[in-house]
């Protein structure tokens, strides 16, 4: 299957409320429409994760990110622009997302992806995509397709074909919380 058909199928599945496994700019991810509460609930169930623990979302551009975060502080744009590795930013005041995706304090973790496949997937989907590591909660994240458990492969609605043959080290993103007042907390380096 070529990349365009792979992306087309993944988008179709997410538009219908389904859950996908896909390669990202970091580790393999479990994804769905970040605006669909039922799809988000499926992701929590698949991961066997308490829904009080927030999930990360991917977007393809700063313009798209701004549709889902109210009043992003200027320092956040500088951090994302200057980051030397994939960096997820936790923003205050999330909007227009599934209620069960937003943390109790109203924040959301978002990352602009620059990796070719996930960037095009986000662009074609035209909304944020949940991007939580492809593993059962508490187990190691799947760096490559070959690391994904059979349980997860069978639990989702679609598994992307792109980058399945890859065998190289990948690590989760850095996570930085940036409050509206500009205060920064490093959550994960």
Number of DSSP E strands: 10
- Helix/strand/pairing category: alpha/beta
What is the end-to-end distance?
Answer: 36 Å
Using only C-alpha atoms, the radius of gyration works out to: 15 Å
Determine the mean pLDDT: 93
Spans of 5+ residues with little confidence (pLDDT < 50)?
A: none
How would you describe the shape?
globular
* Largest beta-sheet details: 6 strands, mixed
Portion in helices: 25-40%
Strand proportion? 15-25%
Total helical elements? 6
Structure characterization notes:
The protein is α/β, with parallel strands linked by helices and 189 residues long. The chain has helices spanning 3-15, 37-47, 62-65, 74-82, 116-125, 150-155; strands at residues 20-22, 29-31, 56-59, 87-91, 108-112, 129-130, 132-133, 158-159, 174-178, 184-188. The strands form two sheets. The protein has a six-stranded mixed sheet with strand order 6-3-5-4-9-10. A hairpin with a 5-residue loop joins strand 9 and strand 10 (184-188). The mean pLDDT is 93.
């Amino acid at each position: 299957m070529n990349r365009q058909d792979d992306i087309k199928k993944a988008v179709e599945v997410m538009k219908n409320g389904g859950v996908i496994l896909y390669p990202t700019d970091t580790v393999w991810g479990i994804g769905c429409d970040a605006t669909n509460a039922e799809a988000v609930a499926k992701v929590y169930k698949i991961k066997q994760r308490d829904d009080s623990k927030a999930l990360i979302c991917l977007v393809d551009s700063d313009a798209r990110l701004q549709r889902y975060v109210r009043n992003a502080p200027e320092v956040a744009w500088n951090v994302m622009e200057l980051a030397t590795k994939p960096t997820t930013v936790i923003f205050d005041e999330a909007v227009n997302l599934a209620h069960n995706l937003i943390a109790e304090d109203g924040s959301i973790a978002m990352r602009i992806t620059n990796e070719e496949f996930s960037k095009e997937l986000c662009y074609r989907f035209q909304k944020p995509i949940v991007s939580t590591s492809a593993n059962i909660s508490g187990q190691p994240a799947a760096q490559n397709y070959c690391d994904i458990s059979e349980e997860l492969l069978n639990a989702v609605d679609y598994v992307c074909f792109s980058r399945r043959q890859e065998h190289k080290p990948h690590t989760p993103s850095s996570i930085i919380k940036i409050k509206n007042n500009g205060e920064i907390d490093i959550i994960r380096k």
